[in-house]
Amino acid sequence: MNDAIGEPVAKGLTGKIWRLGSHGRRADKGATSFALGFVDAKEPRDAAEALLRTRLAATHQAMMMMARRLTHGTTIPQQDAAERAASKLARSYAAQMDTLKRDRSKGQQTVRVERVTVESGGQAVVGNVESGGVGGAVKKSDANPMQKECKWHYAVPDRL
Fold first, then answer.
1. Cα–Cα distance between 139 and 124 in angstroms, integer?
2. Of 48, 106, 137, 153, which residue is 20 to 30 A from 29 by alpha carbon distance?
3. Residues 155 and 13 sit within 8 Å (Cβ to Cβ)
């Protein structure tokens, strides 16, 4: 990924992600590793995509924190505030995912065929058919992209 987005951007994102899960001056290695893995899982094509994926990871972590506060809130005002924040974050996450989808598709269209008639002696393919363009092959994604090794080579320190 460093080749696609450049080393200065990769170092900057690593620093931001490192602070994302930190409490005070102590870094949360689990949260940092999650965010790095989330950004790296789909191999961002450029700096803009890497930045968007970083925002997605931050939004997700904040949404989970609000969900935790909602379930553990002891007063109605605490639960209401957590519910409103979680709802706003969920909408933001969905909008960010739409942006990522539009950016990745670069104007590609999806054609959905509702009805196909196959005459005697004919053949049809049933199911999802993907094409990588004229003569292109589609790359199968890994079963679980979060399990592959992160390509970011920057160590996560214990303290800010």
1. 23
2. 48
3. no
Confidence band of 116 (pLDDT split at 50, 70, 90): confident
State how far the Cα of 118 lies from the Cα of 120, in Å rounded to an integer.
7
At residue 28, φ and ψ (nearest 5 deg) are -100, 100
For tokens 């930190």, the residue is 22
Looking from the CA of 83 toward its CB, the CA atoms found within 13 Å total 8
Identity of the residue numbered 156: V
Burial class (CB in 10 A: 0-12, 13-18, 19+), 32: buried
Per-range mean pLDDT, top range of 44-48, 112-116, 149-153 = 44-48
40, burial (CB in 10 Å: exposed 0-12, middle 13-18, buried 19+): buried
pLDDT for 119 beyond 80:
yes
Arithmetic mean of pLDDT, 40-61: 89
Q: Would you report the helix, strand and coil content of the chain in percent, each value rounded to 5? A: 55, 0, 40
Residue 92 phi, psi dihedral angles, 5° rounding: -65, -40
Rg over CA atoms, the chain: 21
Residues 6+ apart with CB under 8 A from 46: 4, 5
